[in-house]
Amino acid sequence: MNKTLDLETLASLCKRRGFIFQSSELYGGINGFWDYGPLGCELKRNIKDAWWKAVVRTREDVVGLEASIIMHPAIWKASGHADGFADPMVDCKDCRKRFRADQLCEEQGVELIKTEATFALPDGVQCPACGSKNLTPPRSFNLMFKTFVGPVEDETNVAWLRPETAQAIFAQFSNIVATARQKVPFGVAQMGKSFRNEINPRNYTFRSREFEQMELEFFIRPDEAVELICGHVTQLDDKPDLMGPPQASWGWNVWLHYWIEQRLTWYRAIGLPEADLEQYWQVGDELAHYARACVDIEYAFPFGVQELEGIAARADFDLTQHQTHSGKHMDIFDETLKQAAAKLDDPAREAFTRKVVTDWTRQGKSEEDARAFVAKLFDGKYIPHVIEPSAGTDRLALALLSNAYDEETFTDHKGKTDTRTVMRFHPSIAPIKLGVFPLVKNKPELYGKARDIFAQLQRRWNCFWDESGAIGRRYRRMDEAGTPWCVTVDFQTLDDDTVTLRERDNMQQVRLSLSDLVDKLDAEIG
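User: That's the sequence. What structure does it adopt?
Assistant: Structure tokens below.
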């Protein structure tokens, strides 16, 4: 990434080249919503295809789901979103602008005061727009978009646009288990739109009101079940091979670190430099009350280091909540567990039970719940725990755009100094893989040959045909689109079927046969 890049420069290029437009720009725009143009929608599609391939297609232990955006309101009651999915909001009484109280305090180097039931601003906090200290007390604002299902707009027909894709996976868990022929550990992946009525959308597309997520819920055995089956639970101190095949003895903490490594490896594979990726482990009040641990994978955006993806160990909270609220069982039967438990004699069972009771009561849980849990384990049943990697497609697109942007000054073969803007996308996610140019367009034989070559290549990759202007100008347009290669069909092509291939990053040119060109692109794009 060009370390001096600012968002205004990036946004200007994105609009000029058709990556991103302000939604409803014709009518003055609407804050927090963005449209992806011809290049932008290809970029996002490539991101999602790469994620789906890495998380689902190349694994045997993950299946997919595509759920509706509007679901039964009871789902959001069970998940806690209906009552607790809120941000603290303040208004400036002088300029009438609205802000998130926690962000306001963070920007001014103070901490928002949290009480048991509400929030308060510390002394000295002022409006960033007008400088006034005449701010309203913070008040909770539910971030979900409300709508109505059916012709009557009353409280009995209230529904919500989903604020995340994950809850559909939990709500459909039993159906997936019954049909997917998967056994724990296994995952369910979903991509799709989510909606949050952000108080203060900002930083271009980073914080929007409509966005896409790529989420995986990876279901694992509770550590207690692992211990019964394997006789021990592998911990990080045992130095497991996190890049090798997963092992049956892994505990939840090893699974969490396994998915952290998987996700970091993928980000590097699509072009984000390791030096610009950081891990932030949530602590204290940052951590959800049900989460055992959560790490944010962060990227160094032009506006600062911010979250790309959260990876959380959510225990059995979500499935247990839906079991409680729906009255339907979410536990599964594990034959391997049942067989392992059947081998224990009575003293071994009692010793195992005492150990679980001790562990649970140390965590503030009841002995009664611990004994009921163990009794189910002995019957081969449990509610799976889950590791959740949750990534933002739009945030990742912004990170890739930021990382790709470069301005380069160079001297050509004639000694002339020039500057070009180039988007250095990894070939796998570049919107256009190849530009195809006829050297001239007024020679029918050469033009026809170029069209034939374009048609052949277009069947394999997204290619762009450009016959307008000098070759140098065409190269510059492709550089700004992030196209890794350009092919020029010239008069020599008519003689020997070779073409001139120009590399985006170093601007070097070589002659290749069509078969060699196809082999090269296959190897580079992957």
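Residues 432-525 form a domain with the Rossmann fold fold (CATH 3.40.50.800).
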